[in-house]
Write a structure and sequence with these properties.
Elements lengths: L3 E2 L4 E4 L7 H6 L4 E4 L12 H10 L3 E4 L9 H13 L4 E4 L4 H10 L6 H10 L8 H5 L11 E8 L3 H13 L5 E4 L4 E3 L4 H5 L9 E3 L9 E3 L3 E5 L4 E4 L4 E9 L4 E2 L7 H4 L5 E2 L7 H10 L3 E7 L9 H16 L5 E7 L11 H10 L3 E3 L2 E7 L4 E6 L7 E6 L2 E3 L4 E2 L2 H4 L25 E3 L12 H19 L6 E2 L4 E8 L2 E7 L19 E2 H18 L11 E2 L4
Parallel strand pairs: 2-5, 3-4, 3-5, 6-7, 6-13, 7-10, 13-24, 15-22, 16-17, 16-22, 17-18
Antiparallel strand pairs: 1-2, 8-9, 11-12, 12-13, 14-23, 19-20, 20-21, 25-29, 26-27, 27-28
Cofactor: FAD
GO biological process, one term: sulfide oxidation, using sulfide:quinone oxidoreductase
Organism: Sulfitobacter guttiformis
Length: 557
Amino acid sequence: MRMKQLTGELSVSDQIMPADMQAIKDAGFRAIVCNRPDGEGPDQPTFAQIEKAAGKLGIDALYVPIVSGKLADADIAVFDAALAKLPGPVLAYCRTGTRSATLWSLEQSGKRSLADILSATKAAGYDMGGIVRRIVNGGMTPTDTGGASYEVVIVGAGAGGIAAAASLKSRKPGLEIAIIDPADIHYYQPGWTMVGGGIFAAEETSRTMGSLIPKDVHWIKAAVAAFEPENNAIILEGCRVVKYGRLIVCPGIKLDWDSVEGLVETLGQNGVTSNYRYDLAPYTWQLVERMKQGRAIFTQPPMPIKCAGAPQKAMYLSGDAWHRRGVLDNIDIEFNTAGGVLFGVKDYVPALMEYVKKYDASLNFFHNLIAIDGAAQKAWFDVSKPDTPVERVEMEFDMMHVCPPQTAPDFIRVSALADAAGWIDVDQATLRHKTYDNIWSLGDVMNAPNAKTMAAARIQAPVVAENIIADMRGGNPVAQYNGYGSCPLTVERGKIVLAEFGYGGVLLPSFPKVVIDGTKATRAAWFLKEKILPPVYWKGMLKGREWLAKPEKIAVE
């Protein structure tokens, strides 16, 4: 007998025996549901035997038998009624526990998100991937087998998704492509740091989605619920099915605001802000303008996060503004990072440290934000220094800029496309999925060890496009991604340290040193960030014009 918890009120198990009843009672269970019909196996006790043993110990028992492979819609209602009737916690069992886990998954449809259901069953060792359509369909047997079908389907209409569609169209104009994304607005997220620094207006960083999706690309305005890679199918919320010949997965990253206790309740007030949200970036600048004295804390969570330099960009631009106003001496700047270094590529650290000293900022390494009390303006950090017990410290603040913890989206983490950590599992050079050879991924959601930046997606999109076209022609991958990412670190208004690097921290500068020396703060890099990169994004990258993004060819031996 192996009892596996799905919720605090329900666990499932393989076949139990009358002799197991005391252990079941000792584990705290007050009721049992049998989902295995009598007579399935020669070594199987009857339900009457189980019920008798349970009764002796005061445990309720119900018989809800399910024939293997024949779970009817009506069975779900019976199971739901059984759970409502019995005192909890309940242990449901069958031969292996799979039928019981399946019943629970379908019974929970509409009560929990698909991702929560799949996550709970996966953690218990049960794969519910084969019934996702039914879960999405309210637990009932679906009738939609997939009416819409496209040569290429792209999940996500962010920077990576639209750029990939545009790059494909530039190579093969007649290609039937569909992009799936429920959002109405598309954002130029690298601009939000500049909004928080008082340089850009928030409105400059947004466009309507419909104005950006390439001509003749179908826009399916819906959310993805699950993938069926064995069937080349995507299940949308509402149980619509979309079929594909080839699939590109790039829905971005999930900002997990809820993982920090008290954060959601105080964002946008009490001096708590974040440039990681469109509506909050202007509040950052309001706080900076108003602040004359006190403590300003800037946080960075454990990696991976998108744009790893963004938390310290907020610090530098704020420090610069206070320096220019002559109030910096009255402000205590604290940079609290869960990591152990200021920046992951050491070549850029000396230039950054000059500004840390200029703004007299305290670098607090291994400090991970755990909770905030906005009204009291207090925050708590777990300090996890190597070979040292974790210590929780309390800090007061007058202003706090928070970078939220980040994960892959829920529907990605529980899918068959994800690795053990929840990211899309790709070959880091070709960006092709390691298991399903008609699936590719780019952007923040995949597991290649590169910096998660818009600049990385700008290089990745043509690589994916080249390799998909090559695959359509029956050939092998022809383009490879070298891990390029760029992080323009805005260290003051008018100067930037332009970090450009690839896999392993190898420097990959786009310009000769005499034009822009990325290891130093330069005005040329600021001009690039402020004036050049936004139109490169809107008019180049999203239009299939691969400026500074020519795919690197795979060498043929």
